[in-house]
Structures are given as structure tokens and as C-alpha cells.
Model the fold of this input.
Amino acid sequence: MDILIHYIDIFDSYYFRIFILSMFPITELRASIPYGILKLELIPLYVMIVSIVGNILIGIVVIYVIGPSMNLIRNVKYFDNIILYIFRRTRKKGQMIYNLKFYGLIIFVAIPLPLTGVWTGALAAYLFGLSKIKSCIAIISGVLISSTIVTLISLFGKSLST
Done:
């Protein structure tokens, strides 16, 4: 995470850093909210709102770009093997989404753990054939739940340190 922070240090605004950090596939808002609240000591509500907007924005972009991108990338033999590996892995991890569809996607995105979130959720929604509109609604709902959980945990952690 330190290397990511180093690269986004070039921007003046702490809130812009949080916005960008909330868009990265590995960190998403699971890192941007604690970073803003615990490390930068910014106003928790603002940190949460900026993280939500960044995370939802990238989620919607991924939902609408992933289909055409995958079709284009799969035409290259080297990338096709990588994409097939990612698809198999996501299908295996996303069994809950397949079984529960819309509600499964909400739960999957809402769980603030590694390899869950909008990036993997958007990929799983694509692989399991969920409509783009339902996927967007599910991802937005999941982000709102996840951001609440992460913010509460961060505030609890902050209260322990004071």
C-alpha cells in the first residue's frame, strides 16, 4: 500500500488521494477509508463520501467496459489463457453470486475482505450474465454497506488509539 500512496502523493488534495485510492482494484474503499480516517485524520463523513463516489464510479465503468474489453483481449492467444484463468477463479469464488444473483452480488461487494468488492463483483456479474442495470444497483448497494462497515471499524480503531 505504501507504494500506491507514494505514487498518488503528487496530488495536493488529501481527498483526491482518497478518491484515487478507492478506485484501485486491491485497495478500494477497504484501504481508502482507514487511510483517510486513521492516517490522515480527516473528517470521517467526507472520507466516506469521497470513497463511496470513487468506488461506485469505477464499479460502473468496469461493468460497462468489461464485456467489450474481454472480447478484444481474448483474441490474443497469450492473454486468452490469462483471461480464462481469471474467469475460472472468479466463477469458483463467485458461486454465491451465481446462486443468489442480485442479492448475492450485493453481499459479495458488501463484504470488506480481500478479493471482494466492485472489481471482482463486476467481473462476476459479467461472467454470470447479470444485466448491467441490476449489476450497477447491486454494486452501489454493496458499496454503501461495505463503506459503512469499514467506516465503523475505522472509527472504533481510532477510539481505541485515543
Remarks:
- The chain has nine helices and no strands.
- Residues 74 and 81 are 8 Å apart (CA to CA).
- Residues 44-73 form the longest helix (30 residues).
- Residues 2-161 form one domain.
